[in-house]
């Protein structure tokens, strides 16, 4: 099954890049409807240097202009979902049972070092969907872009790999900070309907019983949203990226509620952080209001 996933994602990368107009001209600008995307020679150290500005942007951007309205709407929606979380979880599990979607996650270890599992294979659909958001899939995609970019002198592909890495750093740190501030119980650890919140647990308490404090927000969905956002922003001409990416995000979100890893209300902020992280990373490639349709430098 794991080989199947590797093959599928390898084919998706090849499909994504096979008709790319950047392959024979690595330094190029692509005219979109509103912006021109510019990709210069990738520089890993320059990319990593964007981290402080990305973190600052994650703090400042939600409070700028119309973003405030979106943030308030997200907060209100989250509050409503929190009040209905237990009912929603019960409903999702009931429907999943009817359609034969097993709630438990089951894996087969392929490679272990000591007690640490390095490679595991999902043994049912729910586990496969859950695994999509664990980070390994996104890193596989980043590695695929990097290899393709190096092999074909395609700077857009190589930069996309670096953009994914840059985004994972800012997104991951932000999500972990919020998790440690909010301290929400995961559904399978809940001691009352909807789960309890224990804000600011001590470092040792959090580390020793993580599932009792790390439900909010979902790191899985934040990772998936960040990945989709970076790829679709760097390849705006590939319209199927959004459809495929958002569909997988939705299915993974359902699977995690079904397996009682997350509440539905854990998702809005996670999706917002993932989306914003990806946008902040990729916006440096955009130069608005350039008139040329295609500029080869």
Structure characterization notes:
The radius of gyration is 20 Å and the shape is globular. It is an alpha+beta fold and 297 residues long. A hairpin with a 2-residue loop joins strand 3 and strand 4. It has one domain (29-296). It is built from eleven helices and six strands.
Alpha carbon gap, first and last residue: 44 Å
- Return residue spans where pLDDT drops below 50 for at least 5 consecutive residues: 1-8, 18-26, 290-297
Radius of gyration: 20 Å
Query: Could you say which overall geometry the principal axes of the C-alpha atoms support?
Result: globular
Strand order of the largest sheet: 5-2-1-6
> What portion of the residues fall into strands of 2 or more residues?
5-15%
Number of strands: 6
The whole-number mean of residue pLDDT values reads 85
Task: Supply the helix-strand structural class.
Answer: alpha+beta
Could you give a quick summary of the protein structure above?
The protein is α+β, with helices and mostly antiparallel strands and 297 residues long.
List keywords for this structure.
297 residues, alpha+beta, four-stranded antiparallel beta sheet, 6 strands, 59% helix, globular, disordered N terminus, disordered C terminus
């Amino acid at each position: 099954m794991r080989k199947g996933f590797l093959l599928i994602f390898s084919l998706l990368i090849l499909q994504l890049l096979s008709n790319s107009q950047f392959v024979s001209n690595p330094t190029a600008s692509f005219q979109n409807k509103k912006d021109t995307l510019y990709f210069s020679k990738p520089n890993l150290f320059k990319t990593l240097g964007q981290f402080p500005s990305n973190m600052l942007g994650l703090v400042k951007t939600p409070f700028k202009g119309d973003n405030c309205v979106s943030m308030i709407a997200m907060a209100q929606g989250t509050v409503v979902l929190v009040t209905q979380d237990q009912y929603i979880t019960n409903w999702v599990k009931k429907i999943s049972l009817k359609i034969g979607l097993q709630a438990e996650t089951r894996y087969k270890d392929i490679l272990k070092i000591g007690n640490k599992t390095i490679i595991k294979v999902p043994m049912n659909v729910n586990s496969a969907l859950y695994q999509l958001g664990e980070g390994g899939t996104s890193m596989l995609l980043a590695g695929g872009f990097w290899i393709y970019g190096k092999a074909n002198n395609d700077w857009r592909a190589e930069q996309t790999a670096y953009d994914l890495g840059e985004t994972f750093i800012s997104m991951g740190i932000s999500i972990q900070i919020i998790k440690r501030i909010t301290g929400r119980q995961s559904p399978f650890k809940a001691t009352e309907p909807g789960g309890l919140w224990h804000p600011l647990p001590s470092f040792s308490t959090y580390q020793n019983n993580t599932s009792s404090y790390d439900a909010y927000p979902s790191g899985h969905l934040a990772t998936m949203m960040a990945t989709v956002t970076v790829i679709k922003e760097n390849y705006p001409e590939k319209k199927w990226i959004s459809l495929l990416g958002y569909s997988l995000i939705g299915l993974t979100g359902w699977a995690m509620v079904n397996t009682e890893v997350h509440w539905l209300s854990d998702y809005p902020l996670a999706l917002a952080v993932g989306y914003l992280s990806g946008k902040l990373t990729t916006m440096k490639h955009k130069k608005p209001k350039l008139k040329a349709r295609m500029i080869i430098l």
